[in-house]
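Appendix B. One record, verbatim.
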Amino acid sequence: MSHSIPVELTGFTDLFRDLEEYVVSLDRVLSRIGAGEDPGILLAYVVDHGLPARLARAREFVGDSLEKAIGAEALEDIAEQVEGYRDRK
């Protein structure tokens, strides 16, 4: 079953631009790490490019768009299915 939801074009374009940057940049960074470069370059990229805040904005944009279509409760159900980072301790 396929449904369409309206999204704000500027927000959707910004989201795509950010995702394109992340995919290309992470591929390059991980390739460099695989070639022996200091893994700290990954942390530097994440911090220098403000990834946590930018990803939070992307999540908010997608979440708001989905919530309008499926409702807050269904969106919360989806969010609860996420496998987050777990400490290795």
